[in-house]
Amino acid sequence: MDKNQTFDMQSPKNVINFDGLYGDTQGKYSAEYVFLELIATRSQSFDWNIKPHIHSHLFQVFIIKKGSLTFQDEIQKHLIEAPCVILIPPTLLHGLVYSPDIDGCILTLSDSIIEDIFKTSSLIWKTFEQIRILSHFDEVFPFEKLLNVLKNIEDELFNDYAERFLMLRSCITQFFICLHRLTKHEEAEQSGSAMMTHFRKFQQNIKNAEYPKSIPAFADELNITPVHLNRICKAVSGKSAIELVHQNLISEAQKYLLHTSYSVSEISFLLKFEYPNYFAKLFKKYVGMSPNEFRRFDRK
Question: Which of 38, 83, 266, 274 is 20 to 30 Å from the Cα of 193, by its Cα?
């Protein structure tokens, strides 16, 4: 695949719109439409280049098992590697350029099926209001689990079992709930990653800070609010932001007490405490003894 290949994004007046599958100009909308096909079946005939288009009433889920593709939404391109899942709701513009070694399939179904299953008032429905590119698979949400549910859909779709439409609806429900859970799992992972990034940066800033320095000032450096900073600190360490700042200052004070002959007042001054008495009180709160007691205890 040519990574420099570009999409010809149409103006709103010229957006390609298909009632059925891509390239099918005779396709008619059906409220019970469900279709599953290999990506190569249709895409190969278009030289692996699916131009930007929309489906007014169709949900599509692209399941990529092997290979790569460039996916473009209304704003930007995404270079995507397998394994991944792309969920595209109706009316959202999308285009794709596949690598010839692509292996995967596309599940297409009418929006009325999803609306009927989850209803527009459901919290789950919000997951399906925007394009989702899901690629974070792990032991909690393995890619194979999704493939197994998809296999059940395929089995019901292409066999003439008793009550197949009822079972097919059940399998589709299970599949989309899995997509919803995977979406929430990825959001939690991304949130956790951002949280740890902020926490590590805060720890660095504590060590390199020029004191006195307020918690709002630390928060400003991270472009977050003091409340958010406290929540991060509590979630990661079980301590508030100010407690972590104090712990660092007390740790520095202990080094001075152990390795220098500075008086408690001098150490208080070096650590930018305004009042030595407050420093001594804070030290005792965290260490359990006064600075002088700590120094004498260590030298015994």
Answer: 83
CA–CA distance, 179 with 186 (Å, rounded to integer): 10
We report the CATH number of the domain holding residue 251 as 1.10.10.60
Q: What's the whole-model pTM score? A: 0.66
How many domains does the structure of the chain reveal?
2
Are 177 and 286 in the same domain?
A: no
Shared domain for 176 and 284, answered yes or no, is no
Sign of CA dihedral 287, 292, 295, 298: negative
Under 8 Å between Cβ of 27 and 20 = yes
Residue 70 structure tokens: 């460039």
Residues in Cβ contact with 70 at an 8 Å cutoff, skipping those fewer than 6 apart: 1, 3, 5, 77, 78, 79, 80, 96, 97
Q: How far apart are CA 19 and CA 58, in angstroms?
A: 8
List the domain range (segments joined by +) for residue 245: 209-300
pLDDT in tens, 147-172: 999 999 999 999 999 999 999 999 99
Report the pLDDT value the prediction gives residue 216, as an integer from 0 to 100: 95
Query: How many angstroms separate the CA atoms of 224 and 238, rounded?
Result: 19
DSSP, collapsed to helix, strand or coil, labels residue 23 as coil
Burial class (CB in 10 A: 0-12, 13-18, 19+), 168: buried
CA gap 146, 63 in Å, rounded: 9
Helix ranges (DSSP H) in the chain: 39-43, 111-118, 123-127, 143-157, 164-208, 215-221, 226-237, 241-259, 264-270, 276-287, 291-299
* Contact criterion met (CB below 8 Å) for 100 and 52: no
Q: Do 239 and 120 share a domain, yes or no?
A: no
Q: Retrieve residue 50's tokens.
A: 């699916």
Structure tokens at 146: 């999704």
Residue with tokens 């009418």: 110
